[in-house]
Amino acid sequence: MKPSKTAGGYVSFSVKIDQLQEENAKLAEELKIWKERAVVESKQKEHVEEELKQLREINLHLEGNAQKNARDADYFQTTLSWYVERVNEILPVLQELQTEGPEEKLSA
């Protein structure tokens, strides 16, 4: 290998080795930083995925509750409608009994 040439002449092998070692150290430090970032991002991703899993489970539970509540509401609405119909059937009879005088009640 020939020594590297610079503007002022040739650079010795030891200077070139020192430059390469310095560049290697910088690259090793940069690689270390990228690895640390990757670990942090991986942990964050795991945390987000776990949260997402929990939220999906909660959502399924809430959907089940909502469906049950909808069925209960339908049941209560149907029951209420049935009672309203019965009251509407009985109310005219009660009103008629209320308007009759005491003599009419005794004679009947």
What does it look like?
- The chain has 108 residues and is mainly alpha-helical.
- It has one domain.
- 86% of the residues lie in helices and 6% in strands.
- The protein has two helices and two strands.
- The protein has helices spanning 13-99, 102-107; strands spanning 4-6, 9-11.
- Strands 1-2 form a two-stranded antiparallel ribbon.
- Strand 1 (4-6) and strand 2 (9-11) form a beta hairpin.
- The longest helix has 87 residues, at 13-99.
- The protein starts with a strand and ends with a helix.
- The mean pLDDT is 90.
Largest sheet: 2 strands, antiparallel
Spatial sequence of strands, sheet with the most strands: 1-2
Q: Tell me the domain tally.
A: 1
Strand content: 5-15%
Order of helices and strands: EEHH
Outline the low-pLDDT stretches: none
Quick tags:
single chain, 108 residues, mainly alpha, two-stranded antiparallel sheet
Give the arrangement of secondary structure elements.
Elements: E1 4-6, E2 9-11, H1 13-99, H2 102-107
Antiparallel strand pairs: 1-2
Could you write a compact summary of the structure shown?
The chain has 108 residues and is mainly alpha-helical. It has two helices and two strands. The chain has one domain.
